[in-house]
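Sample A.
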Amino acid sequence: MRFIRLGDVIRAQRKGRFTVDQLSERAGVSSGLISQIERGKGNPSFKTMQRLAAALELPIGALFQNGAPPTAGVPSDPDGLNSTSLHGEQQMVVRRDARKKLVFPKESMVWELLTPDLNRTLEMLRAVVPADYDTREVPFVHQGEECVHIIRGKVEVHIGEQVFALDAGDTITYDATEPHWWRNRGGTEAEVISACTPPSF
């Protein structure tokens, strides 16, 4: 598995645009935590990454791009989430044991990329959502449409002012330009599949 130094990517995206204090104010993340992350000392949560990506006006996947020096740190891009050099089967097939993962240990949150890379017009992700977890602090807003299918568990999807309670086997499709967020309303882990066009991660 390849690791990237997440702090180097955040610093590169920030420099020339914002000071640490300015990014802190925009993201609602303390200056101290941003500095720790940039120095490779922090272990940011998924919610923190959402906030930083939104403040930098980037999809969260942009914070996990190739190109930073490899080091022990955040597991990401093991075979190239953003690869443009896949050939043959790799261009079309993702084997179960070869899925690319983004793991956030603090929250037991796991995202798996089901499409070969992020350079597609369609993106599919599998998410394992911890019990009682929600993303209301930083609602998702992005271009295009999103379709979410519940594999197991009970998930509440908020789209603007509307609320939809979904159970295993249910699917919802919506305009992703509306602020939206999820809540695991069950007492156990939930598993969902999300498809977006164009890619939003």
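Sample B, a different protein:
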Amino acid sequence: MVIAWNAFVVKFKLSPSDRVQQFKTRRDKFFRSTIRGAMTNVHEMSMAGKVRCAVEMKDECPFCYKGIPSMQANQPNLSRDLELAKIRLTELIESSKDKQALRIQAVLAGNEELRSQLDLIEQQTSKRIGRQLNYLKVSPGTAAASRALVVDASKTILGIGTMSVNAMTCGALSLRSLTITQVVWFFAETRGTKRAQNYTKNRKQMDAVKRAKRNTEWIVERVGAEARAQDLRAVKKLHGLNTVSGVVETVEKFEETAASAFKSVSHLLRQLNAARDLVNRNSAEALTFGLISRQMMLISVLSILPGHLWGSAIVFTPEEFTLEKIKTKLYAIVGKKSKEEIKDLTDMASVNHMDTKAQTRARQQMRCSRRYARMLQLCGDLKTWWLN
């Protein structure tokens, strides 16, 4: 096990002192990836279940180090395990032949005693196998697959050329014993590894071909797109936007941008600056100067905004009337308001009437005061008449 573990962790480039700690963290992967790890796992499961060792071969287990002071000094090798597995497999095949001979003899002679004796032996074997399966949770697999595995293992290990159907059936039952399972696992894993390596190699070649094909298609498409873009630029340069009609079209786009609904003044200035650069580039080749200056662009922006908002802040001089300064002043005045929000600031209706309820109440108070004054006047006149 130590040899297998050292071979397993050699790719991690660890010192011998660090491998003990790595074994605790990577033991599950070690159990799954190597046959030695699988056999070690079976041995530990048997010891945890407090039963006889499941990989026990005859009187001893290659993983039970009883009476051995140093595990590293007395390591069992794989050849010893295979030799013991050969002996066990041979005994099982011979016992299966003996059982079949007893059954045939019992059937022919009609001997009930022999038949009952054979049934008792089979029951004891089934109980022993069942106990191992219960503790170790090993799935036996289908009968057909078990027969094929036993035939393959017997031909490879023991050199047996032919096996009877009854012997294969008994071998399928004995495959549940983990001693034979070790042997079958070893050769099945070897075949599976080679098959997986070939599949991986072919898959990598196919992936490389697909990647090369995709890269070629991408390069062809990219080159074609660049060629089409160059042709389009050449056509536009000769018969496009640098003509009078092209310049008029770009100026119309500039005006549409100025009249559009903007999110903020800074956003409007960025869009107008890009449209102005396009107009000036297309007109510079023919006219040798730009049609729209920065000052003209700023005038277009100020014409959109209400004059009473910026009239007292803007100074129309060469030093003050620049893009950076005008942008800073407009941002201080309107902030990040959109066109609709700025328009709402100017849409103010004049108030030329009073509230109806307040007007009615005032009239009532006025009428009451007039009636009271009239009554006082009448009372005074009546008093004067009475005294006279």
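Observation for Sample B: The chain has 15 helices and no strands.
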